[in-house]
Give the backbone structure.
Amino acid sequence: KNEVEQSPQNLTAQEGEFITINCSYSVGISALHWLQQHPGGGIVSLFMLSSGKKKHGRLIATINIQEKHSSLHITASHPRDSAVYICAVGSGETSGSRLTFGEGTQLTVNP
Amino acid sequence: DTGVSQDPRHKITKRGQNVTFRCDPISEHNRLYWYRQTLGQGPEFLTYFQNEAQLEKSRLLSDRFSAERPKGSFSTLEIQRTEQGDSAMYLCASSLVYYGYTFGSGTRLTVV
């Protein structure tokens, strides 16, 4: 069993739909990251959180430390949101420690 | 500061050759990480530096792999006697100890 598991692996949505990607982890963490990866490889950090909820534009990330679960929500999805979304956890002593990654969720938003 | 830069972006090499990749982190970041990502998988940790000290190495990092960060600035990752299984995206990231990550665009290695 992987330390970080994401679901679903693949997700196809119509433009405008509300999207949820889930992440469960089995280790103690200092912080959880949500990352976005476009074709070509570059990774962009979307959120780093250790408790509660964060919002940036149409993106919302939540974390439940007791349940070891996090969700990434995208409201009013758009084709440009199509990418791989990766959950990663830092289990070191600080939020800047090395990360363990999930396998990613491939999101495709159709117009 | 333009973020974390990696060079080259793509490298094709013949099996058995040596390759070296470079990563230039954000200048004020004291931690630098190397990860490897194969197709369809999430990245896997290889090694990290705090300043010039290499603090942790994954067991994925065989004797053919070596990483350096002289003077705590840029870092190099060298792979000797490349094998086809080394084909992957090699990602560099940097961070401050109590802050989040910035990733580079990666170096895609193809061993033929």
User: Anything to note?
Assistant: Chain B has a mean pLDDT of 92. The radius of gyration of chain B is 13 Å. Chain B touches chain A at residues 31, 33, 35, 37, 40-45, 48, 56, 89, 91, 93, 95-106, 108 (CB under 8 Å). Chain B has no helices and eleven strands.
